[in-house]
Amino acid sequence: MTREFYVVIERDEDGMFVGEVPQLRACYTQGRTLDELLQNIHEVIKLCLEEYNISDFFPEFVGVQKVVV
Questions:
Q1: Which of 58, 32, 33, 34 is nearest to 45 (CA)?
Q2: What's the rounded Cα separation, in Å, for the pair 23 and 52?
Q3: DSSP one-letter code for 24
Q4: CA-CA to 24 of 20 to 30 Å: which in 33, 42, 58, 63?
């Protein structure tokens, strides 16, 4: 069974790409390049899924909205 997850990607103050999967608790990693980040996040998602039961509910990712204050 395959599942789709969204990754929120930011660049930190050191220029590293940081990715987080909002649907999975504590599922995040980093990489020097986008390719490295995506490889790393793929592995981290697999590890995170090992902690869940197949019947666990994953929240639906709705989107990202920019708010100007």
A1: 58
A2: 12
A3: S
A4: 33
